[in-house]
Structure formats: C-alpha cells, structure tokens
C-alpha cells in the first residue's frame, strides 16, 4: 500500500503538469520526433529521480517509520546551511503553479458545471459578464478543499491521491478509446509528419515539462519508507507508455489537436457522449484537487526548512497565507501565460541543473548508503548539467525576446 500511495502522489504531480499537451506536442513536432524526445526525457527524468532519492535520504537510517523529520529537502543540501536562494525559487515556482491550479479548476467547472440560478459560462468570454460570479464561487470551493487537505498533511491524503490517480487512468483510457473509435469511423488523419523541424523546440519543451516529477519528492517521501526506491522507474515507465500511445493515437484521429487535447472531444453528443465528454473535459480540473494540497505542503516545507521555526502554528500560517493569496490573485488575474513560461524555466533550473549539481557535491564527501543511485555516472551528470544549462539559456533568451519584441 505504501508503494501504491507514493506512486499515486508522484503520478498526480506529474500528470497534472502536462498530460493534455502531449498529443499537441507530438503533432506539432512530428510523431517520430515526439516518441524519441519522450524516450530521452524519460531516461533523463529517471536518472535525475534516482539522484533525488539518494539526496533526500541522506542521514536517514529508517530504523523506525519515517515521520517527516528524517528526510532532507533540497534546500537543506546545497550548502552547510539552508539555501535561501533555492527556497525563494521553490516558493515562486510553487506559488505561480498554485494560482494556475486555481484558474484551471475554476474555469473548467464554470464552463461545464452550472450553479443554481447561474448557467455554465466561459470566464474568458467578455460578453458573459455574470460568469465572474461562477468563477469566484468555484475559486472559493477549491480554496476550501485544498486548505482542508493541506492542513491534514500528506499522511491523511493517501486515499484521495489513489482515487485521483485512478481517475487519471480512466481519463487516459477514454481519450485513447474515443480516438480509436474516431479513427475506425472516419479513417486516419494523413497530415501528420514524422519530424517537423520548425516546431521541434516547442514540442520538446512541452514533453520535457510533462516528464518531470522530482520537485515534489522530498515532501511526499515521508509516507513511503523503502518504497521510494522504485518510484522513478515506475513513474517514468508509466509516463513513457501512456504518453506515447496518446501522442500517436490522438493526432491520427484529429486533423488539428488543441493545445489541451481534451477540447477536441467537444463534438461528442447523445446522453452517453455527453457523459464521456463531461468526464474528459472536467476531470483534468479534478486532478488539481490532488496536486494543490501537496504543492502547498511543498512550499511550506521549503520555507520552514530554509528559515527554521518549523512549528505547527508556523506551518498553518504559511499554508493559510499561500492559499488565500493564490485565491485572491486568481480572483483578479485570469491570464498567466507568461508567468507559466517563467515557472517552467524555474522548474527546469531546479530539477535538471541544481539537483545534479547538489548530488555531485555530496557524492565527493558523503558515505554510501542503500539509497545511492544505481544509475549514477559523473559523466552523465555533467552532460545533463551542460545540456540543460544551454537549453535553459536558450529558452530564457527566447522568452525575453518574445516579451520585448
């Protein structure tokens, strides 16, 4: 059960990030390129995952069940003391992503689930002025739900995470099955290419982001004991198989895949089709229910680890402030496109550059443990750091160019 629980936690953090963008990335960059890019990203993600597991269990003897105090956070491993800079990066990244979860949840439910006396509406349609009421009601509902689970901690969320990850499996199955039915009914979409050199940069960035899960491992490690050793392999295997099938089948079924592929399924009709459409369109928002509390806990853990004073009152205050501030921001700001771009760069910096650097530093001085990475090779680490640094700078310059051009 511990392994299932941890797999559910890690899967929800991964799938919630980029599942729906994979078919779009495959179609834009080419089906063959998408497959090879996903395989490469999963291999790199697995390697970084094994380094992360080794790091967060430094000095953890596991002679008794974990209680959250024996595992290490990345901010505690950078220097001899906590890294305030990394804590700030984590806080900014987590806060922007938390706002994005608020927006996804509220906009999806406003668009598909009517409230008493208020019809369903599109918050981004300026002619539907009443929609701001629906939107803010759903924002408030989401805030209450994730606040409840964030205060209870990761141990009390096991069944929630397992249920959400089960729904994730249902969603992926429906997306693939409906696409297959469409192929058998309408034939294959023949406009797909194997490699589209004009869009490989865009496709690769989506795929890389969608295969990343290591940022949340320290905050969920306390529920798992030894089960965490298998998590990088399980997550990366699931992501590669599920995303590859989706990335190939859905573009073969639709001429133009939307950036969020579930929007392509709005054509379904009839009572059965409406039920499937509702599940496909609304469920991704439900994934935010599983991801939001863990994100709030992750931010709180990093702040308290970096600045000390980890007491229950301080943790409650930080979680309360984070969720209230994110909800209030979402009340008035509905477009975070540029902020999400920056957030993706911060995530890449943390996972693909900072984690392997921290690992190299500790590998020179620390004794071996049973949690050491079986895949570790210093040449691979240096290669990943170098390649990631080049790609990070390229994305950063591209972002600034697009913002100011």
UniProtKB/TrEMBL annotation:
Keyword Membrane: yes
Pfam families: Aa_trans (PF01490)
Transmembrane segments: 32-57, 88-107, 127-150, 162-183, 234-254, 274-296, 316-333, 339-361, 382-404
Principal subcellular localisation of the protein: membrane
Keywords: Membrane, Transmembrane, Transmembrane helix
Domain of life: Eukaryota
Coiled coil: none
PANTHER family, per the entry: TRANSMEMBRANE PROTEIN 104-RELATED (PTHR16189)
Protein name per Swiss-Prot or TrEMBL: Amino acid transporter transmembrane domain-containing protein
């Amino acid at each position: 059960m511990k392994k299932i629980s941890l797999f559910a936690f890690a899967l929800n953090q991964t799938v919630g990030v980029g599942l729906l963008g994979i078919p779009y990335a495959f179609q834009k960059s080419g089906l063959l390129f998408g497959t090879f890019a996903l395989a490469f990203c999963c291999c790199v993600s697995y390697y970084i995952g094994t380094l992360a597991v080794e790091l967060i269990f430094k000095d953890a003897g596991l002679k008794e069940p974990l209680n959250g105090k024996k595992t290490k956070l990345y901010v505690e491993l950078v220097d001899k003391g906590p890294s305030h800079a990394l804590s700030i990066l984590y806080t900014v990244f987590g806060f922007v992503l938390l706002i994005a979860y608020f927006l996804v949840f509220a906009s999806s439910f406003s668009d598909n689930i009517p409230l008493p006396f208020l019809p369903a509406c599109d918050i981004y349609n300026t002619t539907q002025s009443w929609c701001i009421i629906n939107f803010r009601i759903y924002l408030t509902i989401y805030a209450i739900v994730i606040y409840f689970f964030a205060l209870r901690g990761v141990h009390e969320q096991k069944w929630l995470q397992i249920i959400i990850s089960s729904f994730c499996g249902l969603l992926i199955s429906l997306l693939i099955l409906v696409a297959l039915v469409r192929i058998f009914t309408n034939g294959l979409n023949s406009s797909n290419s194997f490699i589209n050199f004009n869009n490989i940069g865009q496709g690769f960035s989506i795929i890389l982001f969608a295969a990343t899960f290591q940022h949340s491992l320290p905050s969920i490690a306390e529920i798992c004991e030894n089960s965490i050793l298998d998590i990088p392999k399980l997550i990366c295997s699931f992501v590669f198989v599920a995303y590859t099938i989706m990335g190939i089948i859905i573009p073969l079924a639709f001429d133009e895949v939307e950036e969020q592929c579930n929007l392509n399924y709005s054509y379904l009709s009839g009572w059965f089709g409406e039920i499937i459409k509702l599940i496909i369109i609304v469920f991704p928002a439900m994934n935010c229910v599983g991801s939001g509390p863990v994100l709030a806990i992750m931010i709180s853990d990093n702040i308290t680890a970096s600045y000390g004073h980890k007491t229950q009152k301080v943790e409650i205050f930080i979680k309360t402030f984070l969720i209230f501030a994110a909800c209030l921001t979402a009340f008035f700001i509905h477009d975070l496109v540029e902020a999400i771009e920056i957030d993706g760069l911060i995530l890449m910096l943390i996972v693909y550059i900072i984690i392997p650097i921290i690992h190299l530093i500790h590998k020179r001085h620390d004794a071996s443990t049973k949690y050491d990475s079986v895949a570790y090779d210093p040449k691979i680490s240096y290669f990943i750091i170098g390649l990631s640094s080049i790609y990070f700078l390229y994305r950063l310059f591209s972002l600034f160019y697009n913002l100011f051009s």
